[in-house]
Amino acid sequence: MARKEFPGDPRRSADVVPYTPATSNGDGSIYYMVAFVSSMATLFLKNKWAGWIAVYSSLLSVFSDRASASGTGGGSRLSTMVLALTALLMSYMPEVVALFKLVKQGDSGVPVAAST
């Protein structure tokens, strides 16, 4: 098998191509927007599926965030993840409250009156 030569000598300054970092963060921003919109949909519509979509896309947004872009918007990505988790918790809150009411019931099956 013939050996393929490197296309240029890296020791020659004329053949060196300077590194330019990417300026756009397109992948993470779409996940960020989906997480934010579905978190709001979860809070207003009490839709659990939208809550799970918000958590998933917020995790994708945080994990696909570049190190160079974290200085500009890293905090907002983490706050979106907290918002998604809070929205999901709020959508499951009626089931949690009903579960605690079942546990508080006495042996007679009559719910215990809440003191106000």
UniProtKB/TrEMBL annotation:
Residues 1-14 have a biased composition (Basic and acidic residues). One of its GO terms (cellular component) is endoplasmic reticulum membrane. Transmembrane segments: none annotated. Keywords: Membrane, Transmembrane, Transmembrane helix. It is found in: Membrane. It comes from the Eukaryota. Residues 1-24 are annotated as: Disordered. Its main location: membrane. InterPro entries: ASTER (IPR005351). This is Protein Asterix. It comes from Coemansia aciculifera. The lineage of its organism: Eukaryota, Fungi, Fungi incertae sedis, Zoopagomycota, Kickxellomycotina.
